[in-house]
Amino acid sequence: MIKRNINNILIQLEPTKSDTFFIGNKIDDNKEIEFENISDLARYISGNKYFPIVGSWEITTKCNFSCPFCYIVHSNKSFDTLINWRKLISQMTKSGVLFITLSGGEPFLSYDFIEIYKELKECGFIITIYTNGSYISEEQYELLKTYPPFSIEVSVYGTTEEQYQFLTGNKAFSRVDSNIRLLKKDGHKIVLKTLINKTNYKIWEHIRDYADSLNLDFFFSFNLYPDTNRKSMLNYLAPDKILPFLYLEKSGGIIDFKTKPDISLFSCDAGRYGFHIDVEGNISPCSELRKYSYSVVNDFSFAWVKVKNFVINNLHKRPQKCINCDISGFCKVCAANIENDLTSGTVNINNEICEYYKKLYSGVKEILDNRN
Fold first, then answer.
1. Do 67 and 150 reside in the same domain of the chain?
2. Residue 14 domain-assigned (yes or no)
3. Which of 153, 166, 170, 238 could form a disulfide with 242 if both were Cys (CB 3.0 to 4.6 A apart)?
4. Where are the alpha helices (DSSP H) in 236-291?
5. How far apart are CA 314 and CA 296, in angstroms?
């Protein structure tokens, strides 16, 4: 059993278990918690204060897929070849980071995935893995079997070899399917997900049905963001006539058009409990705000303070056009959609994003009006 003291809260974790841990100020007060909502736990552990509890870590940009709508510009870079990752893990442990998501690229292609994963487990981290599911070595498979992660989220791009070839440049569905079934057989918590866009919107329901056939959780998204070179991905959005239906399905058909405009550009956990570290060793509030990043190479805690202060200083900024916009409560502007420097006196929403939400709002409103 690994014991950690995070923000004066005793946390005990068993590395060979994936989804339970003990939490309490005294050992005899500890209770076993099975958790689903990481944000709620982050608020509890942090005392609802700024504290680096939840992180995502891009350990490589290598990938065996070439999806045209991916926000990562792929290369052969791996964190382990550039930065002292053992030093980083030690500093994150001391700073109180508990939840970590390993991403890429394809994280299983990282040269030192096994060593990084082991070190995180031995230091008492709760790990999620984002993967395309096409490559898991026998040694990696055995490692996960011995030290299971909290969850493995697999991005699925189709249900046939032809669909995978078209969308990813790789006929990989049989390998993905085999790996999913093997991991499920070993009792891992598997979540399947897909990004619906103009290349796959006609087949996304097949992917959902595939998840249902395996009795696995499934979720989808349809929002696209600029890639790491700030190139717009909006040309890959699903057709305008499809998006409103996806929005309604995602929301369960419940839309509150009277929601008051959010006065914060950071209504999520970014910079409050959450952060992202890229392959170059830079920390930012989230993966979509990389241009506001600080090096963790020398000192993680010092870099985190910079991220925290950046969010606090820009928390209540809002574009003037959003304040006076009738649908500002619908689109909930995100800091990642601001096109100019957030630290400047005036902030401006990206016009492409603005037009996108206006069209989406009109489409959703029309569907609901027709239903009534």
1. yes
2. no
3. 238
4. 243-251
5. 21
